[in-house]
Amino acid sequence: MPTPFYHLRLAKDLLRHPAIDGELGQFLHTYRCAFLFGNTAPDVQVVTGQRRQITPFFDLPIQQGDPQPWKLLLGEYPQLADAKRLPVPHVAFVAGYLCHLQADWMWVKEIFAPVFGPHCSWSTFKERLYLHNVLRAYLDVRILPGLLPGLESCLHQAEPAGWLPFVEDRDLIKWRDILLPQLHPGAASQTVQVFSSRQGISTPEFQALVDSDERMQREVFIHLPLEEVERYHQRVLEANIELLAEYLAGYAGEVVMQNLCDEKMGAQS
Predict the structure, then answer these.
(1) Residue-wise over 195-221: b if at least 16 C-beta within 10 A, else e?
(2) Which end of the chain is more exposed for a tag (fewer CB within 10 A), N or C?
(3) Which of these, 151, 127, 135, 99, lies nearest to 215 by C-alpha position?
(4) What would the pLDDT profile of 177-190 be if each residue is shown by its tens digit?
């Protein structure tokens, strides 16, 4: 699945998308810190050690008939489905969480399974898993500079308060604090180090492939053109926009109007 930094890029592209306008756009921009954090939060299992079904809400391989994870989350936890009953930052966080689930689901179905999955015929599955991680690290190296500046400070402002009934606030904060140092200007992503350790490959060897456009073309992009990754990115944005419009239907407008009223009352007092 995409890394947390790729999810943050998707979230920032959503916030800049021309279709995210009006009251929806104003809502998401006002509460963007919680929304951005929500876009990383399903990966909290790195901290908790929970099974895949608990935080991303689907398992691998995806089977025919498996429910879409964002719908499964709202079905299993109906208290999260009714946005009008939740505090405003909580709603923005859940909206981001749903977008992450949808992006992961689409990545598995459109990128991982057809190109790197166990039923592909090129190379071995072990080698394909390795090159899938190389791809994710390659994207991170190119994404991270564009996420700065200001994202570290913004995520630090996201303070969970019972936001997930299946994850403790302290674990969400631990996860947030793992990401923050990597978003500091001049800091390096730990993606290569993490993935190379998982694969049992030296970090310099892993990094050498990530840094070589010629090798990436020969070993990865011959199977998955980089243009197809960008097309996936655009498809996710379109799907996320529909998902956000559905989840926040009517709610964003009410919040925006209430904020305007509060501002007016504050100016008069």
Answers:
(1) bbeeeebeeeebbebbeeeeebeebbb
(2) C
(3) 135
(4) 999 998 988 777 78
